[in-house]
Amino acid sequence: MRPRSRHGGRHELGQNFLIHTPTIERMVRLVDAADGPVLEIGAGDGALTRRLARLGRPVTALEIDETRLPGLARIGDVRVVHGDVLRHPLDVPVVVGNVPFHLTTPILRRLLGRPGWRDAILLTQWEVARKRAGVGGATLMTAQAAPWFRFALHGRVPAAGFVPRPAVDGGLLSISRRPRPLVATAHRRAYERFAGLVFAGRGQGVADIAHRATGARRADLARALRGAGVDPRALPRDLGPEAWAALWEAARR
């Protein structure tokens, strides 16, 4: 019987190991399409790590469960690090991993707030992946990050593709840093506050909501939205990245 980690058991660590071969292959292909060294977060038993090691690129396998480290060390051509993704530097161009479902939000927030990486390929809960990719409407987190990042959904992963089996399906999400942000980086904090006000505000459509939230001229906001191809009566969740950037510039002026 495997000894218990000092950080807890599978439940506390959120360990649902990926065994779905088509998903592993898809993740490897997405990593292969991105450039640079790779950081795998939550390497676990190394099902994905073994495939990443064959890419011929520097790979670091990060794992918090010390009982998994000897198995990872036997893979070869991989640097194994005992550490926590919520504390470890995320300064490698490509980040990939099967994210512990109960830590998805804090991991995403930390990732989106850190410089140094360019592409992230993450396996999360299906609903989280859908929402972050804007399927069925944007969330506040996606709207706040969209001027700097692109989100894409790459498929659904059945719960049976994990051991032990979780209660929900997984979803494969990629996040890529925009080479040219839609909003100046110096305005990021102010823009995030603005998006939060608009999402929480009330009114007859997003132009009216933004007017009430910021005091900006309703006509200017509506003109900016129409220029981005959006009806001013749309809801905040209906706006894409370009429309959010246009709305922000109109409100800022």
Describe the structure.
The chain has 253 residues and is of the alpha/beta class. It folds into 2 domains: 10-177, Vaccinia Virus protein VP39 (Rossmann fold, 3-Layer(aba) Sandwich), CATH 3.40.50; 185-252, Helicase, Ruva Protein, domain 3, CATH 1.10.8.100. The protein has helices at residues 10-13, 21-33, 47-53, 69-73, 104-112, 126-132, 140-145, 188-200, 206-214, 218-227, 241-252, and strands spanning 17-18, 38-41, 59-63, 79-82, 94-98, 119-125, 149-157, 162-163, 170-177. It has a 7-stranded mixed β-sheet with strand order 4-3-2-5-6-9-7. It has a two-stranded antiparallel ribbon with strand order 1-8. Strand 3, helix 4 (69-73) and strand 4 (79-82) form a beta-alpha-beta unit. Helix 2 (21-33) runs parallel beside helix 3 (47-53), helix 8 crosses helix 9 and helix 10 packs antiparallel against helix 11 (241-252). The longest helix is centred in the N-terminal third of the chain and has 13 residues, at 21-33. Mean pLDDT is 93; it is low at 7-14.
